[in-house]
Amino acid sequence: MGEKWSGAEGTWPDGREAEPSVASMRAATRALRSHLGTLPAVFHFDGPADQFLAEAAFPYARWRYACADSLLGSGIGGTVVGAMARSLFDDGLLWQWIAQSPAERRPGLLGSMLQERDRICGFLADHEATCPNLARWFVPLDGVTDLTGSSLEALAAPSLPGAAELMDLFLASSPARPAPTSLLVGSVEDLLQAARGLLAVSGMRGAVMVLAHAGHGNLLGLQSSLAAGGAAGHDLRADHEALFMHVAAVGVTVTLLGVCAAVPECWPPEIDQAGFLGTLMRLTENVVAAAHAVHGLGDPKPLTGADPKVRAKARMRRLRPDALVAHHEVLPDILHAGPVIDAVRRYEEFVGSWTVDPWAHGDPKLASVLAYGGAHSTFSTVMSTFDDHAAVATVFAARMLLEEAARFTWLTQDVHDEDAFVQRSTQYFDEFRAKKKATIATFAGNGVALAAATRLLKMPDHVVEGPETITKGRRPLPSIDKMLLLMGAPYPEPGWLPVAYSLLSQVTHSTPVGIVHMTRYREGVLSAHDISPEMLALALDVACLGSARLLGISGLLLSQGSDPAQQYAAGLERRAYEVHDIARMMHGLD
User: Considering the entire predicted model, what is its pTM?
Assistant: First the structure.
């Protein structure tokens, strides 16, 4: 994926020239991607399950980095890049932590696998949803290692710390930018310490918040797509692209170094490790330097105080029985998503059958334009990636569509009650005004000048800024669970959507449950860059449901409820349900 797009060479698909600094950065990200692609992946069959999960971590990180790089300059999927960058950042923090004490911490992969399974079982129970093929969701790979979770090692394993804890630990350690010579020589541990320093920028906590907004596909995240001269919802503003790829490059590099320390036996013997890692560090530094020139964040101020202690955690509660899979319950990998794909292509054809001119009725609301453009862009990302060796990007995009569709479903429910609609609108926009204010404050509180922090979240000149006042005593938005339940109300089991969101989140959060769905083992061949048919069917299903809701509602808002928009919205929903009617037979949720 990506070779056919011209953005990496400095132009957009519509012929616009990228700024020289952006073109240089893309050349650096492409060079790193090319180097990473030359390292063979090594897996040890029939070894400990935590060894396999550790060996799978780098190929999965490399895959996401390659997909993010491929989307640069493509004119679609800008916010998906941010989502994948955030996940790579979290992976890097996790693997540098595991690498500090592999024997003690690596088994936590098994504990976290069971913890996530237990969480999914909890969603099913709490929302009165069923999943007859739950064993396939928990053990999609058979014949490689024991992933049932029933072994004594798995049952005794602790859980890994959360991303927030690891973030606090990283920021408290105050890493310094390494000297160039330290990037080329030394042990894996020395290189790992130097690589951590490549994330040493002022306001890193604020930068990660920007990535998080993009990853959730919300109104504030979609504003990353407001590039001068570009299409709203499609492009990616240069400073945010630089932030995203800075974090992604260091994340994938630290992940590889951490895996090298935690599973040294996975290094391919035919590759000179010192030479490969030295080149890796040099290319990563090139990305960081090029990104710095665009996003402009400087070095952080030294911190004082003791570092927080983060340890693996013992399990605090008994597992639900369904979180464990007996060996005789493991189901074979025999499904094929072909019928789902055929239905999705029919849906895609209808998506392009009608468009709205957002400015036909005067200046439109920015939120409606971003919802409409963002839904088209993100759904295009789904359709451009799921069968092009980039299906991991499909899952990220599908989750974003589902989440924002749930918010719009809540926002526009019962629009005939005008007073209630106004109250929800106020609540909705207050949420993102507050998030924007908090992000700027976080930047400014972590070494970034207030003017620079404000500039990172400022709208382009061609966009009219809306009101920034936040209602006193504002109410936060309902939880995503509640909004998904509202969206799922027409289905036999409304709770299937929160469960679907949880399953997709396993991939976006790089949990052991998610990683094993990004690998397939069939007829004696292990494919590290492949997606299980269940996960693909679910991602395509919710991508259609989410985009149908977003395109339908935003089309109605932008056209002032025109008859063509009403027919289009109804047609989208009908065809999306046709996809679901086929996909549910594969992923098991309804």
Answer: 0.93
